[in-house]
Design a protein that fits this description.
- There is one protein chain.
- By secondary structure, this protein is α+β, with helices and mostly antiparallel strands.
- It has a domain of 95 residues: PDZ domain (Pdz3 Domain, Roll), CATH 2.30.42.
- It contains eight helices and ten strands.
- The longest helix has 32 residues.
- The relative contact order is 0.13.
């Protein structure tokens, strides 16, 4: 029960961090904020301070920052639509930026507790490894790209190689400050003896770097980029049919995964690290997903902002924001229906185990 409550709290904090990004930048640019709400549904507590009503609502999902003129016509000079386009764009992107920075900060704190980091640089080979040769891989080589995708850190190697089922890889290696290409390079798992056991390995030992301020910041940044890339790769796999909708999770599924991660950890300290890592991934996942050009999401609003800005300059007249509001309202209905579908699916999974 403790881990479930912790999971709900983490998810709620990440959502509110997003809304806080909108709120802070709106206030900074002088845009009128009518309401800043934690959670959704009927209000269980409200208080108006100055021009803004702060509310706590009863459904523990999401929240919002309601700005004047965001989805309707307003004559208020401090309305959202009255702000310059670049200010509106920053306000819209600020929510995702806050999520990304939250994930990055969590990773920095986490990585500050470790002794060091594995690297993508080859330190040695297993005996008789066929990959080591003048025309192949050599000690000191650092993986830079695998099948066209950037290798940011050691964990990328296994992840990117697992997506290739052909056994031949297009590699780009850093060697003595130069980039070397090894196209259609064959790499297959081989049986090796390790600590008295037979294991399947590619036959490569990778390097290690000690923890410093620089390596902590570098690995936290690269992990953040990795998380963002995983979102795009997952969406691509979904579109290509490589994964199913059943593999997707909503708020209930996310809370369940966080709670299960905590329960399955050996100690409380390990649980804290595992949950923190997952929280960072979810924060950056939210940042990327919210920037997709879909109506009702921030990315959709930025997309329409660009469209309307160009049209208004071409037509020399202001476009009524209510039309965009209708599109976002329809998008919100569809989004809520999709979330409801995913949530019911997650609940059903919990019921049937």
């Amino acid at each position: 029960m403790l881990y479930i409550l912790l999971a709900v709290l983490i998810f709620g904090v990440l959502i509110m961090t997003h809304e806080l990004g909108h709120f802070i930048t709106a206030k900074l640019f002088g845009v009128r904020v009518n309401e800043f709400s934690i959670c959704m549904g009927p209000a269980i507590w409200k208080k108006t301070v100055g021009e803004t009503t702060y509310a706590l609502r009863c459904i523990p999902i999401g929240g919002y920052c309601a700005m004047e003129g965001e989805d309707e016509t307003s004559e208020d000079p401090r309305a959202f639509t009255s702000a310059k386009p670049w200010k509106r764009a920053i306000i819209l992107v600020a929510g995702s930026a806050m999520n990304f920075l939250t994930g990055l900060l969590i990773l920095i704190i986490m990585y500050s507790t470790v002794a060091g980091f594995s690297t993508a640089k080859i330190s040695d080979f297993f005996p008789l490894c066929p990959l080591q040769s003048e025309q192949g891989l050599q000690i000191g080589d650092e993986f830079h790209r695998i099948d066209g995708r950037r290798v940011y850190m050691y964990s990328d190697i296994g992840m990117l190689m697992s997506r290739n089922t052909t056994g031949k890889f297009d590699l780009e290696i850093k060697r003595d400050g130069r980039l070397i290409k090894l196209d259609d390079f064959p790499m297959e798992l081989q049986e090796y003896e390790e600590n008295g056991e037979t294991v399947l390995r590619y036959g490569i030992y990778f390097g290690y770097e000690d923890k410093t301020v620089g390596t902590v910041l570098k690995n936290a940044w690269y992990s953040s980029l990795d998380f963002a890339r995983m979102v795009w790769m997952s969406l691509s796999d979904l579109i290509k049919g490589l994964v199913d909708v059943d593999d997707m999770s909503g708020p209930v599924g996310i809370v369940s995964v966080i709670a299960q991660t905590g329960k399955s950890s050996e100690t409380a300290g390990v649980a804290a690290l595992n949950i923190s890592y997952l929280a960072a991934f979810i924060a950056i996942n939210l940042a990327v997903m919210n920037l997709l050009p879909i109506p009702a999401l921030d990315g959709g609003r930025v997309f329409f902002l660009l469209i309307t800005t160009v049209l208004e300059k071409a037509l020399r007249r202001k476009i009524d924001p209510k039309y965009e509001g209708y599109i976002h309202a329809a998008g919100m209905v569809l989004l809520l229906l999709f979330i409801a579908f995913i949530t019911l699916k997650d609940i059903w999974k919990l019921i049937i185990g």
